[in-house]
Amino acid sequence: MFTSQENKLASPASTSSFGRSKGNMYLVDAKSRLVVWSTYQPPKSFAGKDLNRTASNIVSRLKKDLNPKK
């Protein structure tokens, strides 16, 4: 029988929170694994319309941060 720790190591996917985000979004450099940009914007609900609106807002914010006005 597995102990609690052994069970966690045997099935790491069961502890993943991917897909159940609370609104934190990170842009991570793949080589260095450093966070280069982050934002927090939780969706109003998990309906497709609200998720699309939230994603669009996050993309707009990222574009604005990448091209600041001079």
How would you describe what is shown here?
With 70 residues, the protein is α+β, with helices and mostly antiparallel strands. The chain has one domain (22-70). Helix content is 37%, strand content 16%. The longest helix is centred in the C-terminal third of the chain and has 19 residues, at 48-66. The chain is flat, with a radius of gyration of 17 Å.
- Uncertain runs are none
Per the principal axes of the C-alpha atoms, what is the gross shape? flat
The count of DSSP E runs of length 2 or more, i.e. the number of strands, is 2
Let me know the average pLDDT. 80
Structural class: alpha+beta
Question: What are the defining features of this structure?
Answer:
single chain; 37% helix; alpha+beta; 2 strands; 16% strand; flat; 70 residues
How are the SSEs ordered, and which strands pair?
Elements: H1 4-10, E1 24-28, E2 35-40, H2 48-66
Antiparallel strand pairs: 1-2
Summarize the structure.
The protein is of the alpha+beta class.
